[in-house]
Amino acid sequence: MAAPLAVMLTVVLAGCTQQQLQGWMPGDGPDTTNHTSGIMGLWVTSWIVLLGVGAITWGLIIWAVIVYRRRKGQTGLPAQLRYNMPIETFFTAVPLILVLGFFAFTAQEQQKIEARADNPDVKVEVFGKRWAWDFNYLDEDVYYQGIQIQPDENSDVRGAVDQSTFPVLHLPVGKEVEIALESRDVIHSFWVIEFLYKKDMIPGKTNYMTFVPERIGEFEGKCAELCGEYHSMMLFKVKVESQEDYDAYIESLREEGKTGRVGGEYDANSNQPGVGVPTNESHED
Ligand SMILES: [Cu+2]
Ligand 1 centroid vs 275 CA: distance in angstroms? Predict the structure, then answer.
């Protein structure tokens, strides 16, 4: 059954646009990160299979409604049937196979995405804070402290924001990146839309994201966990660039004197596990 299905899908999908091929998921193709093609594959395959199940189900319902409708002059109940073993076995087994199949493919994909690198090329620690972001480039020992994005005073468009105030996370293309996610106050969520993945930032706990950005470009990011009054302004950008451009950016931070790491001493909650009792010294460094 798989072979003719594959042939049919190839023929049908050959006429598709890129947007249709990726199931209208955001992004300009499957290779934004090393994970995006797998996620798109899982999504597109799932809805094609489920659309097939839906079409068969709707078809059978409509067929039964039309063929077995009450006709003129009919009275009483139709013949009452029960216990059809083949049909009952069929409609128990098929959904079970589908559910187990979807579960297995999803678990497999998730395991690939969640696997941590033994030795990532780039390590960045990202702090979410109400309502902006801090980035610590751990290997290079430099940092960037974001401020909340500002409204664009010169624009007539309501809600327009000043693009130059976005915090920007720089990443070199083609390198394995590990992002450590932290929060300074409440639960936030780190979401780069076109990377097709988001993960919560939880106070007192470190979460990790591991991926290889594969396409140079600028990608929109936002907080995906309602975190207070200006949650909707908690935006950022990810700039994926060549190694040379990345090195130049890191150097520019160093020249600005932004060396070191802005760590837990800037947290709004000073009584988190692992942070310890706040002292004056810890706030001075
Ligand atoms: Cu937030």
Answer: 21
